[in-house]
């Protein structure tokens, strides 16, 4: 199977994912059938190393697949984008950790909660980890978790921020996800009670930011020389743009077939509605084109073995954040066109997209102003140090 075959298989799943969207909201997690079908299609292997049966694909293929999934079901697109990007992170770890995750089963899924909310204590051979981590999308389907934590020195001062890879046997999932939007993404809490994590299953933010990770020795593909901050944030932004495009397509059909305006004309004949439809389409296209250009530039540099310049990293964060803003703007315009119909409680594609996008905006990576400040500071010649670059 080739990368393009995976994309074709994912597109074929769209009708089933779309039909299950209401059920995903009822479950408050991804339906098992959706996860199984995406796995069978090869989606979760796109960013997995070839050494473990993955494709180590061009990230553009991964993002195209995320976009198609999110068009069909926003919650599935969001959670799949997050679960799908984690094989990249595991590929950066010590080869021993990779073998523990995939050695017996290459289809194993990994969830995450990178915010450093837990307690960490350095001990011989590794660390002891305890605490509660929030918003771990898709965690019900994962058997390992990547959890963030801060390491303090003997005086209690923070000296390192790390990610810890923890097996399902060492944590529990608390079913607390009950939100307005992205209801089916299953972002439950992960709770760890005094688990030992060996040193080879941890990775500091420094090596990740500097693109000098132990896993690169065994995974030489250019995919693993990309900045994680750009790769991850673009994944969730792509999902949001996919949600917006799915809503746009749905509303075009509705306007042609059913809607009426106050004077009695079809909504499709209303010039003000036409302007909103055009503006929404322009916002979606602008978001997709900017994301695609930056992704192509990043991957070209990685293929050439070149250092990823900070200005390109900053541009990736700028484009990623603006893409989320444009997706929300597009769906807000469509809501203005739709009248009172989507305001009723019930199954409505546009309403779900509106709820999903405004919920997704709350993800820390989608803080538009913060991302723009980073870009502007770099463009103005200031010395910028941020883990999200």
Walkthrough of the structure:
The chain has 389 residues and is α+β, with helices and mostly antiparallel strands. It folds into three domains: 3-104, Butyryl-Coa Dehydrogenase, subunit A, domain 1 (Orthogonal Bundle), CATH 1.10.540; 110-204, Butyryl-CoA Dehydrogenase, subunit A, domain 2 (Beta Barrel), CATH 2.40.110.10; 226-379, Butyryl-CoA Dehydrogenase, subunit A, domain 3 (Up-down Bundle). Helices cover 50% and strands 16% of the residues. The chain has helices at 3-27, 32-41, 59-72, 74-90, 95-102, 205-210, 228-257, 271-303, 310-338, 349-360, 368-379, and strands at 110-123, 126-136, 144-152, 158-167, 171-174, 188-198, 202-204. Strand 1 (110-123) and strand 2 form a beta hairpin. Helix 3 runs parallel beside helix 7, helix 7 packs antiparallel against helix 8 (271-303) and helix 9 runs antiparallel to helix 10. The mean pLDDT is 94.
């Amino acid at each position: 199977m080739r990368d393009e075959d995976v994309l074709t298989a994912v597109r074929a799943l769209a009708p089933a994912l779309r039909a299950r969207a209401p059920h995903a909201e009822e479950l408050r997690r991804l339906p098992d059938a959706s996860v199984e079908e995406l796995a069978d299609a090869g989606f979760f292997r796109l960013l997995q190393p070839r050494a473990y049966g993955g494709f180590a694909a061009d990230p553009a293929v991964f993002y195209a697949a995320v976009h198609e999934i999110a068009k069909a079901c926003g919650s599935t697109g969001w959670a799949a984008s997050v679960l799908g990007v984690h094989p990249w992170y595991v590929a950066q770890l010590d080869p021993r950790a990779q073998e523990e995750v995939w050695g017996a089963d290459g289809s194993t899924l990994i969830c995450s909660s990178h915010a450093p909310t837990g307690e960490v204590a350095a001990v011989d051979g590794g660390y002891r980890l305890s605490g509660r981590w929030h918003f771990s999308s898709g965690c019900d389907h994962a058997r390992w978790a990547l959890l963030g934590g801060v390491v303090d020195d003997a005086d209690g001062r923070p000296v390192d921020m790390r990610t810890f890879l923890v097996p399902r046997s060492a944590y529990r999932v608390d079913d607390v996800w009950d939100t307005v939007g992205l209801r089916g993404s299953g972002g439950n809490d992960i709770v760890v009670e005094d688990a030992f994590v060996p040193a080879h299953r941890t990775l500091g933010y420094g090596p990740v930011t500097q693109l000098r990770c132990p896993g690169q020795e065994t995974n030489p593909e250019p995919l693993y020389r990309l900045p994680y901050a750009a790769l991850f944030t673009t994944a969730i932004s792509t999902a949001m743009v996919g949600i917006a495009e799915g809503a746009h397509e749905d509303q075009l059909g509705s306007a042609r077939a059913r809607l009426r305006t106050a004077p009695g004309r079809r909504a499709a004949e209303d010039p003000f509605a036409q302007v909103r439809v055009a503006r929404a389409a322009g916002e979606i296209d602008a978001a997709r084109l900017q994301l695609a250009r930056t992704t192509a530039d990043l991957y070209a540099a990685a293929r050439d073995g070149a250092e990823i310049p900070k200005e390109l990293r900053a541009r990736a964060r700028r484009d990623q954040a603006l893409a989320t803003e444009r997706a929300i703007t597009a769906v807000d315009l469509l809501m203005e066109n739709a009248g009172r119909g989507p305001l009723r409680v019930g199954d409505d594609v546009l309403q779900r997209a509106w709820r999903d996008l405004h919920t997704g905006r709350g993800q820390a990576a989608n803080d538009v102003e913060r991302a723009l400040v980073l870009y502007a500071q770099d463009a103005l010649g200031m010395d910028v140090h941020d883990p999200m670059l």
